[in-house]
Write a structure and sequence with these properties.
alpha/beta; Spore Coat Polysaccharide Biosynthesis Protein SpsA, Chain A; 7 helices
């Protein structure tokens, strides 16, 4: 492997920040993306939003923020209910993929120090990186948080994750190890040679794990330096939205969870 140690950082004193590109799929999630999009734009250099041809709300939101977006019905090709991977690939095809790429779900809020932290920590250019998430259910809870957000970081050494319940990690105990799943997957396509998502699935599930398996166990890395916040309108069973949005709108008149 012909690289110098400093090449393992997104931003190093030698290179600085070259490029951090991101893709997010948003089909019928504009009500939540409206709350997460500003945090994404703060953290990345370029963002591509992928939606379908019927989702006017997402298109209007992207136009309002002057964000590049792709409209495609590839999600439904070959009888698929919601092949999210094809949408991800439509977004990846728009990126240069010349440095670091982030696949992020549209319901994920990135804390303000995300980019600063990514600029300062070790990142494996041949690996895939994930983070942990906290779950915020309900717009009222989110407004309460964002109106007076407590700092996730204290001083230069403490990271707090006590505002919302923690989500689960995916770790297979049969020697497959930890898998960064689809809500936040950071990797370097140029260095790893991995540039596309596997598309052989009918829904939004499973392909993110298959994608993580493209990287060896030792190259699947958890970033412990910050947490993201997953927004949803309600507590629901895992997988309820894998075949398309089923949860109720993220509105102030929602019923209590």
């Amino acid at each position: 492997m012909n690289y110098q140690p400093e090449d393992c950082f997104i931003g190093s004193p030698k290179r600085g920040i070259r490029l951090l590109e991101a893709v997010t799929v948003c089909v019928n999630y504009a009500d939540i993306l409206a709350h997460t999009l500003p945090s994404m734009l703060l953290a990345v250099d370029r963002l591509v939003v992928v939606t379908d041809t019927r989702d006017e709300a997402t298109a209007r939101l992207c136009e309002a923020y002057d964000v590049e977006f792709v409209r495609t019905d590839a999600f439904y090709d070959d009888g698929a209910t919601f092949n999210k991977a094809r949408g991800i690939n439509a977004g990846l095809a728009r990126l240069s993929q010349s440095d670091w790429v982030l696949h992020i779900d549209s319901d994920i809020y990135l804390p303000p120090r995300t980019r600063m932290i990514l600029n300062s920590i070790y990142l494996d250019p041949f690996g895939i990186h994930g983070v942990d998430r906290m779950n915020c259910f309900g717009l009222r809870n989110w407004i309460r948080y964002i109106s007076a957000p407590p700092s996730m970081h204290q001083g230069y050494y403490l990271v707090h994750a006590n505002v919302f319940p923690m989500g689960s990690r995916v770790c297979h105990y049969n020697a497959d190890g930890y898998f960064p799943i689809g809500f936040f997957q950071l990797w370097n396509p140029r260095r790893s040679g991995i540039i596309r998502y596997p598309e052989n699935w009918v829904g939004a599930d499973h392909t993110d794990v298959v994608f993580s398996k493209s990287f060896p166990i030792e190259s699947r890395r958890l970033i412990p330096d910050f947490y993201v916040i997953h927004l949803d309108s309600q507590k629901a069973e895992m997988g309820v939205n894998w075949m398309g949005r089923k949860t109720r709108p993220f509105t102030i008149d929602e019923k209590p969870c």
